[in-house]
Specification:
The chain is an all-alpha fold and 113 residues long. The chain has a domain at 1-65. The chain has helices at 2-45, 50-63, 73-86, 89-92, 96-106. It comes from Malurus elegans. This is EFCC1 protein.
C-alpha cells in the first residue's frame, strides 16, 4: 500500500511538471499573440492596405509551410508573423511627432523567446 502511494505521488509530480510546462508554453504563445495584435493595431492606425497586409500574411504562411524540428508550429507562425509585421516599412515611416508618442509602445513588442 505504501509503494502504491509512492507511485501515485510520482505520477502526480510528473503530471504537475507537464501542466507547468504547458502553462509556460501557453503564456509564451499569449505574449506573442499580444505582440502581433499590437502591431496589427498600429498598422491599422497607419491605414495599411488590405493587399499589403494580405501579402505579409501569405509570406508568413509560406515561410512556415515546412515546420522546423523541435519548434511548435503555432508559435513559429506567430513569431514569423510578428517579425514580418515589425519589419513593415509603414511602421518605420511615421512622422517624428507620432514616432515619439509611440516609442514607449514599441519597446514591449520585442520579446525574445
Amino acid at each position: 500500500e505504501l509503494q502504491q502511494k509512492v507511485e501515485e505521488a510520482e505520477l502526480l509530480k510528473v503530471e504537475l511538471q507537464m501542466l507547468e510546462t504547458e502553462r509556460v508554453r501557453l503564456s509564451l504563445v499569449e505574449e506573442k499573440l499580444m505582440d502581433v495584435l499590437q502591431l496589427l493595431q498600429q498598422l491599422r492606425d497607419l491605414n495599411i492596405s488590405k493587399r499589403a497586409l494580405g501579402k505579409i500574411l501569405l509570406s508568413t504562411l509560406e515561410s512556415c509551410r515546412d515546420p522546423q524540428p523541435g519548434k511548435a508550429q503555432l508559435f513559429e507562425v506567430l513569431d514569423t508573423l510578428q517579425q514580418e509585421l515589425a519589419a513593415c516599412e509603414l511602421l518605420h515611416q511615421q512622422p517624428p511627432e507620432q514616432a515619439q508618442g509611440q516609442s514607449s509602445l514599441s519597446s514591449p513588442l520585442v520579446i525574445s523567446c
